[in-house]
Amino acid sequence: MTLRLAAVAALMALTAIAAAIELPLEEGFERELDAMRDEGWVVRSSASISDAVARSGERSLRMDVGDDQRRYMELYIPVEAGKQYSAEAWIRTEGVRSHPRGGSNRGAVIFLQWADHDRKHVSGGSFPRGLFGDRDWTRHEVSFTRPIPENVGYLHLLLGIEGQGTAWFDDAVVREVQAGWDGPEVVQPNEGATLQTRRPLIEWTDLSPGGVGYLVELSRDPVFPAAETLVVEAEGTSARLAEWLEPGQWHFRIIAQMTRDTMMPPARAHSFTIAADALAWPPEVTPRWAWSDQPRPEMAVAIGPAGTEAEIAVTVDGEAVEVIAREEQLLRFRPAADLAEGIHEVRVEATGAGEPVVIEAIFCNKEPGSRVSFRADRVTLVDGVPFFPLGAYRDPSDRIDEVAGLLEAGFNLTHDYLFEHQPLQTPEVAREYLDLMHEHGIKVFLGLNRVKLAERDLAWVQRFVAELMDHPALLTWYLADEPEIRGFTPSDMRRIHEAVRMVDPFHPTSVVYCRPGSFAEWADAQDIHWNDPYPLRPSGPDRPLTMVEEWVKLGRDAVGPDRPLWTVLQGHDYRWSNAEQARAEIGTPDKPTREHTRAMVFLSLAAGSDGLIWYWWPKSRYHIRDDAPQKWAGIVETVQLLHKLMPWLTAEPTADDEMAAPEPLRVWSREVDGVRVVAVVNASDEVTELRAPMEDGAEGRLLDFESGVAVELVEGQLQARLEPWEVRIYRW
């Protein structure tokens, strides 16, 4: 038999074995490895069957990983498109640690990776962080996969170690997620509890931190008929109904949702009973005020649900307020005396049938450090002056006290993840950072602490914003990176956005998104929509650079013609997701190239992007300026070119800017003081010929924008040969 025929025969055998695998798959590792190999398992040399350690039965799978960094026991499991799956295993560890060259290893793990119908890798899957150190038997799980796409034929189950050490695995299970599955663990109320409140709080543990939102359904009927079911959108991992429940038994179930239209099957139902004498308490007390420069501004507090009987007492800076009017669900008031400029403490106390409900909030009347707005054409204005953002997520140094790289390139906007990560940073540290950026003429998109956002601590958010909204370096509040995959819902983000705008209406909010299919759900959750198309992938074929223009257009369709849209451009070599492996196999980061960078910029502009922000890896992966000098030079050159184009970038568009171009060409154009600039992009990986008839009199006036050299016409035409993804810029 030839090698080719042998390979085909082996593949057919594996396919037949996989087809025989039925779910739920329950694996106790009681057989020899040879038998498991015959059943389709991919067995590595680091795997063995242990007779000495077992959680149940007599054996377990043992994995020993030394210098290899990543070793797994693997199985391909056939799955169906549109369905969702979960997996679990019990894991015991001994000396599991990150490999010294391995970067961010994930320990002893269970993964569900995706593979196509030929078992080739497909981007996607679930990769939760595993266990480290010395741990006794611990249940570890993949709570769920996302719905299986059409191009996925297999779940690729991996049990093993990322890093070094020894781990044992037992009682592994893979199953389809179906209605009535266990779902998240309910924290309160206890199953079958009798409650003394008609507005109970329902809490649960998060299924997948950073990747899912929730709905809660409540009904008197355990079948949950639509006409008799109340639906509550959760805030994080808790929910409380906005109305009073009638006494008697109630059933509830928690539904995890990835997007508005992508929900997991309902989890199994739970129940509680509202006592006959339960209190219509606690009420919902919500501040209703905004920034004002009036000495004694009118403010309000909303009280709900309807029918709430409560006395409301309000103080501002410890002084009782003057009540203007009390309506059924609204108390309108003003401070008893003129307020000085600053941050003012507001305390609202509702008293009634149960324990007092106290809300502590702030009112801000500080003068802003700048006033950021937008022209009708979405161009950013800072105190009325046009500003086109050319931003970077960090200085190459990864330090908040360094700006050399930002200045070298000419970025006018920056950010640092220090303020999003732990430990929690104070406003004083942020002000020092803003001071330094202002000294160098750089604006800031300032992030908010992720833990505080995850806790939905809007009081902290508002105080942080109020402390810093008077700084002139601040341009926009950066609310979140990719909230669709971090456990937020559109409603969560809208609440954060509204909390910020309540304190600071002068600086817009920004959020970056990574899932085009859900852009529309988040359209009004911020002032500026960002998205981050990264076409150059860590493995497999790169996507066309036209992915950038596609995402700009999808974002525009989602947010409409009036809301600003900024593009996050790929500055990082995605192959350095595994830095050690990339250094060994590739050497120097070289993507995106200069040509990639230029093409992505002008594809964005031609598609209608209103701002450009570069993201690159932190220096823990590689130092973009020192380790990838050619790549860095391409970014620097491009940003400096954009500065030369700044008058045109901030010019008001006209109908003459619209220029038809045959495929695969893209065109961006503006005119300033009678001088028109046109950028032409070859949006193709093949050489393209440009043929463009020019107006009379263009001869002698047509220049190459970058070199200043006159461009000769051929029979009245602009003719040029454009290399793949090449950009040419002309002026006349």
What is the spatial order of strands in the main beta sheet? Answer: 31-38-37-36-35-34-33-32
The poorly predicted ranges are 1-16
Mean pLDDT: 93
Percent of residues in beta strands:
35-45%
Query: Could you name the CATH topology of the largest domain?
Result: TIM Barrel
- The number of helical segments is 13
The beta-strand count equals 44
Query: How would you characterize the largest beta sheet?
Result: 8 strands, parallel
The total domain count is: 5
CATH class term of the largest domain: Alpha Beta
> What is the CATH architecture descriptor of the largest domain?
Alpha-Beta Barrel
Describe the protein.
This protein is α+β, with helices and mostly antiparallel strands. It has five domains: 3-176, Jelly Rolls; 186-279, Sandwich (Immunoglobulin-like), CATH 2.60.40; 285-364, Immunoglobulins (Immunoglobulin-like); 385-649, Glycosidases (TIM Barrel), CATH 3.20.20.80; 655-731, Immunoglobulin-like (Sandwich). Helix content is 18%, strand content 36%. The protein is built from 13 helices and 44 strands. Strand 29 (380-382) and strand 30 (385-387) form a beta hairpin. It starts with a helix and ends with a strand. Mean pLDDT is 93; it is low at 1-16.
Keywords:
732 residues, alpha+beta, Jelly Rolls, Immunoglobulin-like, 8-stranded parallel beta sheet, 44 strands, 18% helix, disordered N terminus
Concise structural overview:
By secondary structure, the chain is α+β, with helices and mostly antiparallel strands. It is 18% helix and 36% strand.
